[in-house]
Amino acid sequence: MSYAHLGAPTVFNGTDDGIGGDSTTENLNQWFQSGDQAYILISSCLVLLMVPGIAFLYSGLARRKSALSMLWVVMMSFSVIVFQWYFWGYSLAFGQTSGNPFIGDLKHFGLMKVWATPSVGSPLIPALLYSFYQMMFCAVTAALTIGAVAERGRVIPAMVFTFFWATLVYCPLAYWVWNSNGWCFKHGVFDYAGGVPVEIGSGVSALAYSWVLGRRNEKMMMNFRPHNISLITLGTILLWFGWLGFNGGSSFGANLRAVMACWNSCLTAMFAAMTWCLLDFRLAKKWSMVGWCSGTISGLVAATPASGFIDPWASIALGVVAGVACNFGTKIKFLIRIDDSLDVFAEHGIGGIVGLIFNGFFATGRVIGLDGVNTGITGGFLDGNYAALGWQIAAIVSACSYAFVMSAIIAKIIDVIPGLKLRASEEAELLGMDDDQHGEFSYDYVEVRRDFLAWSPHRGEPAGDSEVIEPQHGIQEHASMVRPHSSSDVGPAEEKKSSVSSLHDDKKTAGEKQA
């Protein structure tokens, strides 16, 4: 996404440079190719699919009693980000009049003057479309980060955190690498689709939030396992589908670089998935579906910063390295005793770091120039740019440090505000976030329990072949509904009388048989 602004297909004439022209007197679409605009608009929709993909993934990874809570926080974080990005997020990340290397200004507050001028990221698309596409990136990053609340975090404080985190963490990180005034951009840091703001931003921020939130109840963590692997698989497939818009669309045009990015994404994902499964098999001697999903995601994460810079053969190596690094990275949380329950740091933080380092070695101008705009750019080690790796590492260290410290500070401040304590009570944690925070459930077994109690005989009274099972316990109203002519309709006095009479008849029959 580091474009040398060589001009749009039809050179923008500078008319009304503030908004790109007067739409009442001229066709503002003339500066851009309709195919490029259509492709990025569709890619934006694909990236949007990643948000419910993350929701399903996190819901499946959590326990049953917190499954709905994970769906809610992810989807509500999207609502928060849409407002934040419109309000001032886009301006802070991509405003170009601030002049500082850290963060933008409020020139585009409320999307003011965001119309048909060539965008910050590429002259191929207008600023209005670019802002919409980048909003989806911020939404995905927030959704990934908010997984840190799993099974113990209150949801409203998490939404407050999301707004200020996007403002003070995501926007500066995006400004560093994608804004022409950002210090990483000026030093030629290679970050195609978000290794710094998206992957490091989400992984390290989730680690910081988990640290502030504290560990889950130790007894609850014993024998922990995901409650629904089908949901995990569904979420992974949606993520992969959306990721092709995430990485493919970051070429900002329907061009060969987009095709290369999609190829590299799939290659990296598959080799990371196979590597992860093999590493898990060596321990359990079983082929894990969760392992396949985790490996696929770690590969897609590593491809995010690299897929538009490296050759396909390098993507295969990247997949293997990412699979190994992220798999062993899941052990880090035990070493530092931070309960990153959904392994956001291991898969996204470490995966993003691996992809950025690969760019320093294997980025090549052959791939970069496939978009038809960035021709003649020098890559990394392969192209003789030996300083590239140093700047890649500098960006990694700076992003990790800034994201962790700032996220922890934001979380700590919110935690001390009355009514916004981040963590739920111990009783709520044992009860489950679904019941405590929402009063709704992904799996509502109340009706199942009612049916079971109404239809089953009392323990110790098995039914014979010719006997009719009568409700013996459970909710009387429900039993009457499912069996209108059962003894549940009899009043308490008659029911007692009938029971005594039946017992007397049984004793009498037994006495006659003995005689």
From TrEMBL:
Provenance organism: Tolypocladium paradoxum
- Compartment(s) where it occurs, according to its Swiss-Prot or TrEMBL record: Cell membrane; Membrane
- Tell me if Transmembrane helix is a UniProt keyword of this record: yes
Provide the family line.
Belongs to the ammonia transporter channel (TC 1.A.11.2) family.
Q: Which stretches are transmembrane?
A: 38-58, 70-88, 127-149, 156-178, 190-214, 226-246, 258-279, 291-310, 316-336, 348-369, 389-414
> Ammonium transporter AmtB-like domain spans which residues?
39-443
Quote the biased-composition stretches of kind Basic and acidic residues, using this chain's numbering.
493-515
What Gene3D superfamilies does the entry give?
A: Ammonium transporter AmtB like domains
GO CC entries: plasma membrane
What topology does it adopt in the membrane?
Multi-pass membrane protein
> This protein is called what?
Ammonium transporter
Q: Name one GO molecular function term.
A: ammonium channel activity
Q: Where is this region: Disordered?
A: 460-515
Q: Determine if Chaperone is one of this entry's keywords.
A: no
Q: Which Pfam families match?
A: Ammonium_transp
The protein's superkingdom reads Eukaryota
The UniProt keyword set, sorted, is:
Ammonia transport, Membrane, Transmembrane, Transmembrane helix, Transport
